[in-house]
Write a structure and sequence with these properties.
It is built from seven helices and 15 strands. With about 300 residues, it is of the alpha+beta class. The longest helix is centred in the first third of the chain and has 22 residues. The model has no long low-confidence stretch (mean pLDDT about 90).
Length: about 300
């Protein structure tokens, strides 16, 4: 993407380097818009990170059973989405899965049903001791979506926002194209690509063993997942694609196919080992323009 009509900006937040591309604007105006979007990302980090003292999530994690705290609408929306994805994936996605480490393994207190959300009052009530909320698998995607909203508020008609290597959302088109061509990184080799997808007004998120290691746990069982080394989701929402790509890492191929059958706007891509050491990128669900390169690890 060396076109001079594309202005590029970078910013460190949420433990990664974010990128914003803006098309067809005055350079100074594009920079102002990008800085406003980065400010929104920083604001959300202060609310959603469990590692920042006094963030919404950190305050939730100090609560005992029956206690409640008032939080921002962004935290409520992330928790609502997390609960929906948990239900839609039969528990394959759970932002409270880390709680199992702090209680008896025989009776782990996990699951979104242990968080009572009141959108009107913007409160979260914890229904079990030892509950630990971690929005790491949805918060970056949510922030991508909010940053895009800021750019649109600045009348940016075409651009791209990405949160490091995990989630990207494109809107409008890059110059001379019908969308944005986004590479799909090899989950086991960061310097290689195994394909590319054409996106427009859609989000792509990926999860893989390169980032998360081979110790990913299935929140439904607490045991190591047996899923593929890489999984991607294309969705209308960046927050949803972020969460769903994480769930795909622990779901079986049949479960992923069924999810896409029931959620027709979602595309799933799995990097499946067809023969020892030989992988193939396989797509399920909604059509996308996808070019693939079969690869050995």
């Amino acid at each position: 993407m060396s076109d001079e009509r594309i202005h590029r900006f970078a910013h460190d937040a949420m433990a990664c380097t974010w990128g914003i591309y803006v098309v067809g604007q005055d350079a100074a105006y594009a920079e102002q818009a990008a800085r406003a979007a980065f400010d929104e990302i920083d604001r959300l980090d202060l609310e959603l990170s469990r590692f920042i003292e006094h963030s919404d999530v950190a305050r939730i994690n100090t609560l005992a059973a029956g206690q409640w705290v008032q939080v921002g609408i962004d935290t409520i929306e992330c928790l609502e989405l997390a609960a929906k994805v948990h239900a839609d994936t039969n528990g394959a996605f759970d932002v409270t899965a880390g709680s199992a480490r702090s209680v008896s393994p025989a009776k782990p207190a996990t699951g979104p049903h242990l968080l009572k959300l009141d959108r009107a009052r913007r409160t979260v009530t914890v229904l079990a001791d030892g509950l630990v909320v971690d929005l790491g698998a949805v918060g970056k995607g949510y922030a991508v979506g909010q940053a895009v909203s800021v750019l649109r508020d600045w009348s940016i008609g075409a651009g791209m926002v990405h949160s490091g290597q995990s989630t990207v959302y494109t809107f409008g088109s890059s110059p001379g194209e019908t969308g944005w061509t986004v590479p799909i990184r090899n989950p086991l080799n960061p310097s290689a690509s195994i394909g590319e997808v054409l996106l427009r007004d859609r989000a792509l998120s990926g999860s893989g063993t390169l980032i998360h290691g081979r110790h990913i746990l299935d929140p439904r069982t607490g045991r190591p997942a047996s899923g593929p080394p890489g999984a991607w989701a294309v969705c209308p929402s960046a927050a949803l694609s972020d969460a769903i790509s994480t769930a795909f890492m622990v779901m079986s191929v049949a479960e992923v196919e069924e999810y896409c059958r029931c959620h027709t706007e979602t595309t799933a891509m799995l990097w499946l080992e067809r023969t020892p050491g030989v992988f193939e990128l396989v797509r399920f669900g909604a059509e996308v323009e996808l070019r693939t390169t079969n690869s050995e690890s």
